[in-house]
Amino acid sequence: MRNVYVIMADVVYRKWKLKECSAVTHDTNLYKFQPPSGTIMPVPLGHHVHAQAEIAGMDISRSYTVVPPSLREKATNGCLHLMIKIYPNGTLSSYFGNLNIGDEMQLSNHEGKFLEESLDGVKMLVMCAAGTGFTPMAGLIQHCVFEQPNPDR
Fold first, then answer.
1. pLDDT 10s digits, 46-83
2. Global pTM?
3. Quick one: which of 37, 48, 23, 47 has its CA closest to 104?
4. Which neighbouring-strand residues pair with 61?
5. Are 67 and 138 in contact (CB under 8 A)?
6. Helix ranges (DSSP H) in 91-150
7. With 0-12 CB in 10 A as exposed, 13-18 as middle and 19+ as buried, what is 61?
8. Cβ atoms within 10 Å, residue 42
């Protein structure tokens, strides 16, 4: 495999509108954000976005992995899905927990170094995660099982 270097642009935030919010567990929600008009931003497997909000007069940002809407369904409508655990004292997660449908959230362009080609020839994939560590794996599971299944894997 050859080395590929990608130069990332500066982080640019845009206002995305919360279209849907559904509970995954008692403290975790799946948020569906609609892009601003004219924005087309497919997010590659394994990449993340930054969410930013002004809280107590400060701009607070955190990174979140974009997830598929379900393990069997790939987002095709340009929307971004984020699975976020709400911590009662979490600075940004509690902000997410108070969002209402129609509210806007500052989300960045995507970033990441994972290359889908790194899965070529992989016959066995072992993943281990707990808690919020599951979200980076959700897209990988969907990709390996439903999008590009490999009978030898």
1. 889 999 999 999 999 999 999 888 766 666 678 999 99
2. 0.82
3. 37
4. 52
5. yes
6. 93-97, 135-142
7. middle
8. 11
